[in-house]
């Protein structure tokens, strides 16, 4: 049975409050759609934690800069619904709002069409007519992906806050594929006293090791093959650590060589503490190795946690 789809935020809140009045718990899995096994693993986890699960499918304009791939982000809403139906449709509800930022679409269009100067710092209009309140997790958002995408995490933290306020879940499940995002949401929930338990799940991978991502569909066959260098080099790095190589700089160089050798354009390779996300010089248990690299026009991220006694 296909899940119920709720498109309006007031209806979503009403639905959640009805569920709560029945003393049932709610899990939330925020996604941007084009669901794959990684997303479904989060939904399965949520179904074990909560009585009902809300899967939000919303491509958040607030986390894309004007030069990024918002317009080409893949979507297949009916495919997503079928995948969710195959899980446990009755306990899953899909929240698929049209736009969570435009409070006054008509007026905004008039202003833009009227040719007035507008300041665009992300794909969400700034300047009073639309959205102007943002959540920033100031230190954690700065490194890793935040360096090349300075407005990204404020968009993520803000949309997740909005979803938390609309859905009012007991649990929210995130993937560790977006490691920095998961840590930022955990910190935000702690700092702002959200009464929501944040759960992080391991990365789901294709058989050949590639981290699953909605963006993988935009890789050519050849780029996809070359992109395997990311997961391969991360696995090699972890193996080297267990063999006693604990110098961060050497391991970074090894990963960079592998990825660049496969014609990937590196955004970053960083070895950081799992909680603080601060760089470390000597590798020890409790670090995570994070990579972001471009293959063609597609930016991929991946990481591997090191949790061994050395
Ligand atoms: P997205 O639709 O890319 O915004 O992702 C929605 C959620 O799914 C986020 O919490 C991601 O971290 C998670 N996710 C995406 N890809 C994977 C994966 N390969 N394994 C586990 N979780 C994932």
From TrEMBL:
Transmembrane segments: none
GO biological process, one term: pantothenate biosynthetic process
A family per Pfam: Pantoate_ligase
InterPro entries the UniProt entry points to: Pantoate_ligase (IPR003721), Pantoate_ligase_C (IPR042176), Rossmann-like_a/b/a_fold (IPR014729)
Compartments (UniProt record): Cytoplasm
Record note on quaternary structure: Homodimer.
Protein's name according to its UniProt entry: Pantoate--beta-alanine ligase
């Amino acid at each position: 049975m296909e899940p119920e789809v709720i498109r309006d935020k007031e209806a979503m809140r009403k639905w959640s409050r009805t569920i709560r009045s029945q003393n049932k718990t709610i899990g939330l899995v925020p996604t941007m759609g084009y669901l794959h096994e990684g997303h479904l693993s989060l939904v399965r986890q949520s179904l074990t934690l909560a009585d009902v699960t809300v899967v939000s499918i919303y491509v958040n304009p607030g986390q894309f800069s004007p030069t990024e791939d918002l317009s080409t982000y893949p979507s297949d809403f009916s495919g997503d619904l079928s995948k969710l139906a195959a899980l446990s449709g009755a306990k899953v509800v899909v929240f698929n709002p049209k736009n969570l930022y435009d409070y006054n679409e008509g007026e905004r269009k008039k202003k833009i069409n009227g040719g007035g100067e507008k300041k665009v710092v992300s794909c969400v209009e700034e300047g009073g007519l639309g959205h102007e309140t943002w959540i920033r997790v100031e230190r954690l958002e700065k490194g890793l992906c935040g360096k090349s995408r300075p407005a990204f995490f404020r968009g993520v933290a803000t949309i997740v806050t909005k979803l938390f306020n609309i859905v009012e879940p007991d649990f929210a499940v995130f993937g560790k594929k977006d490691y920095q995002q998961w840590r930022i949401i955990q910190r935000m929930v702690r700092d702002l006293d959200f009464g929501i338990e944040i759960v992080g799940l391991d990365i789901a991978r294709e058989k050949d090791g590639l981290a699953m991502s909605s963006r993988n569909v935009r890789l050519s066959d050849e780029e996809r093959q070359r992109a395997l260098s990311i997961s391969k080099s991360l696995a090699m790095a972890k193996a080297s650590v267990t063999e006693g190589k604990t110098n961060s700089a050497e391991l970074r160089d090894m990963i960079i060589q592998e990825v660049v050798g496969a014609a990937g354009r590196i955004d970053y390779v960083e070895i950081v503490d799992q909680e603080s996300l601060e760089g470390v010089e000597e590798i020890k248990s409790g670090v995570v190795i994070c990579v972001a690299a471009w293959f063609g026009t597609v930016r991929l991220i991946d990481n591997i946690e090191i949790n061994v006694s050395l």
